[in-house]
Design goal:
With about 550 residues, the protein is mainly β. The chain folds into 5 domains: about 100 residues, Immunoglobulins (Immunoglobulin-like, Sandwich), CATH 2.60.40; about 110 residues, Immunoglobulin-like (Sandwich), CATH 2.60.40.10; about 80 residues, Immunoglobulins (Immunoglobulin-like), CATH 2.60.40; about 80 residues, Immunoglobulin-like (Sandwich); about 90 residues, Immunoglobulin-like, CATH 2.60.40. It is built from 2 helices and 44 strands. Helix 1 packs antiparallel against helix 2. The chain is rod-shaped and about 205 Å long.
Length: about 550
Amino acid sequence: PLALGLYTVNAVYGDTITMPCRLEVPDGLMFGKWKYEMPNGSPVFIAFRSSTKKNVQYDDVPEYKDRLSLSENYTLSIKDARISDERRFVCMLVTEDDVSEEPTIVKVFKQPSQPEILHQADFLETEKLQMLGECVSRDSYPEGNVTWYKNGKVLQPVEEVVVISLQKTVDKSTGLFTMTSSLQYMPTKEDANTKFSCIVTYYGPSGQKTIQSEPAVFDVHYPTEKVTIQVLSQSSTIKEGDNITLKCSGNGNPPPHEFLFYIPGDAEGIRSSDTYVMTDVRRNATGEYKCSLTDKSMMDSTTLTVHYLDLQLTPSGEVTKQIGEALPVSCTISSSRNATVLWIKDNTRMQTSPSFSSLQYQDAGNYICETTLQEVEGLKKRKTLKLIVEGKPQIKMTKKTNTNKMSKTIICHVEGFPKPAVQWTVTGSGSIINKTEETKYVNGKFSSKIVIAPEENVTLTCIAENQLERTVTSLNVSAISIPEYDEPEDRNDDNSEKVNDQAKLIVGIVVGLLLAALVAGVVYWLYVKKSKTASKHVDKDLGNIEENKKLEENNHKSET
């Protein structure tokens, strides 16, 4: 490298400076010498080497004491390079006839320390120009330059917004520079979490280089411009009994810690932290809620709805009624929104709501009226009606001859609740029949059956008794030799024909009586007109009528 056409050696601070003598060694060389030039041009000799005696001498120059080394080829080395070594050195070769000189320029470089942002502000405030910090880089040579960056981009000076000043100082003992760049800055809200850094640009032996500081982030303070109220709840909807927390927040930094909360009906406001808690809320808590800063500025509001669901079942609990009675049942719902109603009887869903104009045994059971607000999680109500239908025992007895003609089946059909106890006895003897069969008791009804083969006519008694009453019914049963059929579905075709014949006979008798009445009317009318003539005709007609009656009676007896 050349400086102003001269040979230049670049050295690193603290390293060894090596300067070759760039002259050709002439014949007849006597000795070689090195000197440096003072700023005023006067020389200072520092090293001598004889070509004949091969000995080296170093001049008494304090700043180079124990630092110099001169080789056989007259290359000069200087240990522990200093800034003061940056000067013009000259190599001299001397013969008897001539003195040759060749100058060398020494340049010394020192890399600065990594820059640091010192004296950082605790926080920044918007609309205020304040000292952000100082970027300090020490021990540089030559002096470097400092540049500020914001989020990786160069921060240019702007009047009253970005003010940068650079100060450079030199250590007199070392000649090294320290650069200090201060930054005054007026931030905005957007500068929150912004990264500020600084970079030092310096020159080294190989050219220009940079070193960057660690980034610094500042808390930016700005006033609240808006407040917001919100409802904190575990569910999106609120129902009676829930706990509610109202939270008020401001968008300032730092955020405000105290607010005024306004609940429905309260115009003054309740001073609290940023939360206000209401426990076990009721439906009257529905309304508009507000919050503001403590100076009653920047207010926000929200509407809160507390959902409720009431169910009234009439009657409810355990209800006992008598069969045939009427029982009005109503399930009344009151709710904050439309609710669905479901009726369940004995764990089975009903298609319609119950209505009892005349209670029957099958109406007894456990009824549940259940209502739900589908849009509100967990809001469900139900009430129960346990309906008991009581009735005194009712008895109907039937008999039939079995198809084998060897026995008869007597059935006692019983209704009543509580379930009646049934007993069979034989009238007259009073003996009790224990061999009976009972059907399943369903909807207040069941039947008790006995099978007998009586050799003579007998009267059977069925006794049914519960807590309400004792009912007794008897039935005459013919001997086994006489068939009996009380149930139409068990009759054969011959019996059906007999029934039809009896119906025809009854119709005939009725028609005959009507004709007789008509004839009697005619006779009476003729009697009024002609008593004698009428008398003869009437006697004859009456005689005919009597004869007809006798014939009809005989016919009836024979058919019977």
